[in-house]
Every structure is written in structure tokens, then in C-alpha cells.
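look at this fold:
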Amino acid sequence: IQTGSGGASLAAVKYIRQSMIDQGIKASFALGGITAHMVKMHEEGLIERLIDVQSFDKVAAESLKSDPMHKEVSANEYASADEPGSATHCLDMVILSALEVDVNFNVNVLVGSDGIIRGAIGGHPDTAADSALSIIVCPLLRGRIPCVVDEVTTLITPGSTVDVVVTEYGIAVNPSRPDLKERLVKAGLPIVEIASLRDKAQSIIGHPAALPFGDKVVGVVMNRDGSVMDVIKNIKG
């Protein structure tokens, strides 16, 4: 299992923990940016080992220093697409956050609603591509900003690698995973089409004005294979 750095994905850990206790499930490892929540589950015996490419807090850093089952790894060991032994290849489930998701399940975690680069993308596209189940969690709206849109501002994680988008207004399942949709429906979960989530956001907030992008390329988004997926242009003014 891996969880991303967003608040919603981190909050999911406490529910996963309780479900693991209730069902007698144990994880062979937790991966990625390690937090105090993951350390606690490891110390409780719910997670056998921690594979750490980034310690998110002091508790994780202290654990890394003292626990032989808490291992630090390089970015290459963590998520290299070309390394058969990289840890992301063995992920069963990843829970990730998003700034935007579009109706084709593409995800943006880099450029904000103002067109400004927010920060690093971490292992978002790597874990989504390699895991058996990739879950994106986000609110339908952040203040006046819709999170489910027609087209993401900047493509970071391709929709072909995203299985599920979870919002407070329902769960959208990628059409490429009918097996997963069937299981979630049987579980009684509120399944909706992703276009209906976009429509709900627009009905509440309206259509945001287009961003005033210029013609100067200030960033290039590259896929794991080195191909260019998207470019980031300057904001006028």
C-alpha cells in the first residue's frame, strides 16, 4: 500500500487500519512518503516493513533511524519504470490526491487553478501506473474551484492508469475496469459516472474563466518513458 501526501489520502489510513484489524489483513509493506500513521500500523504488526523514499514527519524519521524493518531507498529503487525490482511494481493499492481530474480520468497535481506551478509531483504517475488498484481522492470543489473538470490544466497522470475517483458526491470507476465497478456496486457503494460529477460541480460553481496563458513554454511534463506528455506555458501579466 501507498498513500499520497494529500489530506484526504492520508486520512484514509485510519479507516484502512480498522478494516485490516476487523478482517485480519496484514500488508507486506507500505511504500513512499512514510508518515506517523504508517509507522503506527507497522509497530502494531499490520505492516511488515516500511520502504521509505521520503520521511514526511519526525515520527517517520525516528523510526527510520532505529527500526531495521524501516528501509530507506533511492528514487530509482522506489519507482524506476525500467528497474524490474523497483518497489512500485509490487504495489497492490495506492491512494492519491489530485488538484484536478477530468472526464477522461486524467489527473493534474502540478499546476493550480491560477496556472502557477505548485510543487513536485512525487511518485503520483509512477504509482498509478504500477499499482494493481489506483484510487484518486478529491473533493468535488475546493472553495470556488471545481476539481472535476472537462480537461485538466496540465496532464500529469494519464487516465489510463487511474482506476477510481472518489469524491463526497460519489465514486467514478474507469470504464476500463468493469470488474471493479461490479464489485463496488455489489458492496453498496454510491457509483456515478465521472461526467455527472463534472456536471454537479458546474451546476454549483458555473464555468470558470479560461486561464490567460501566454506562448512561452516554462515547463515540460515528461512521461516515465521520456516522451513529452504536456507543456506548461506562462501566465500573461
Notes: Helices lie at 7-23, 36-43, 58-66, 75-79, 124-130, 178-186, 194-205. The chain has a mean pLDDT of 94. The longest strand covers residues 213-222.
